[in-house]
Amino acid sequence: MNPTHSKRERLTAAAATLVHQKGFSNTTLADVAEMAKLPLGGIYYYFKTKDALAEAVTERRVSDIDALLEKLDRLPTPRARLKALVNVWAEDREIDALYGCPIGSLCYELAKGRGPLSTVASRLFTHLLAWSEAQFGLAGFTRKQAKTHALHLISALQGISLVANALGDSDAILSETRFLTGWLDTLSRTQKNGGHA
Prior knowledge:
The protein is an all-alpha fold. The chain has 2 domains: 1-48, Homeodomain-like (Arc Repressor Mutant, subunit A), CATH 1.10.10.60; 61-192, Tetracycline Repressor, domain 2 (Orthogonal Bundle). The protein has helices at residues 3-22, 29-36, 40-46, 50-72, 78-91, 93-99, 102-111, 116-138, 143-167, 170-192. Helix 8 (116-138) packs across helix 9 and helix 9 (143-167) packs antiparallel against helix 10. The protein is elongated, with a radius of gyration of 19 Å. The N and C termini lie far apart (50 Å).
């Protein structure tokens, strides 16, 4: 690996962790350099501004989502893929209860400024929504239904992450993900029976 690329990756990874744990506004470049075990002066070679670092963190999260969705796409059916997405929240419930969802937290903070960073951050949600909508479409729902179900699913996952974080209660995520898994099964049965969900 190129040493320059390696250092940039270390800084981005450190920033992603710190932003998740502390929030973007509370994360300093000095914090990032310390976690990455690199001199503070060196960070400016890779990231001239804190906004540039935020963009790199967002791109990293997009890559993480890409990798996850690519893995889920290997599952045999749309319902299995959607249920596996829900299960990711169940598996990550302890860390999400501590710090919130890494995607939702980042988007929430960066969207406040309504500047270029909010546009970059919005890609995280548009990506998840588009994929989820496609899965519902493949499951046989109309375009309108698929869009509605996708919005409901992602909103529920993000909402429970926020509630669990506020309460410090990982069991809340477990409860909601079980409910959503049952909801997906119900939708599947309704679709098979020719009903409208």
